[in-house]
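Objective 1b. Sequence-to-structure analysis of DUF2225 domain-containing protein.
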Amino acid sequence: MILLYDKKYACPNCKSNFTTKKPLSSKLRVEKVESDNHKIYKGVNPYHYEINICPHCGYAFGENANKRLNIQKTEKIIQYLLNIKDFTRLAGERTHEDGLRTLKLGLYIAQLIEEPYYVKAGLSLKIAWLYREQGNIEGEMSYLNQSYDNYKKCYINEDFEAIGYKRYFMLYTLAELSRRLNYYEDAKRWYAELFAERNVPRITMNAARDLWIEFKEERKSTVHFETQKGA
């Protein structure tokens, strides 16, 4: 069964044309969707192919990346490109480790050339998901935190609606990430803003209410236990 196809790109850095593997959307099989929108796939995992790696120079970029690099941005990534090794095989079929590596390379480049916060937030979140799939809690929490920080900056500083993000989606994401990170006061704020928002899909609102109630109950139980323990 063919699960991957060849897609052509032009490298934003060296301008070379190249072909890389991408998963066929019609062949993707979702087994489960978690509360932070992490899709668990059966078979090929599209997160492994999120980032394109130019086989000629090693430049890493995603679909939402800035396709035009000025001289200042190019200068920032020269040293990075000189140190990249073994990138030619990443245009083919990828393992889970390849997926992690390419997403990290994409995030590193996005940070170097100061891509918008929403780009860095999305990449950080996908890295966290791959760590979760590995059972690596420390890695997951580290990148969830980076994603949360970038989504906050996006919410405050960027016109996220212009790129297709709904306000309720941003609020739900901020609430969910702060809940997973156990940032109670932050979660309280974002859930309150979400619950006050109009035109939120019923399924999203119901899920958010359930998650917030569960989080509050867990918080009460933890505080009660710690109070008894310290008595």
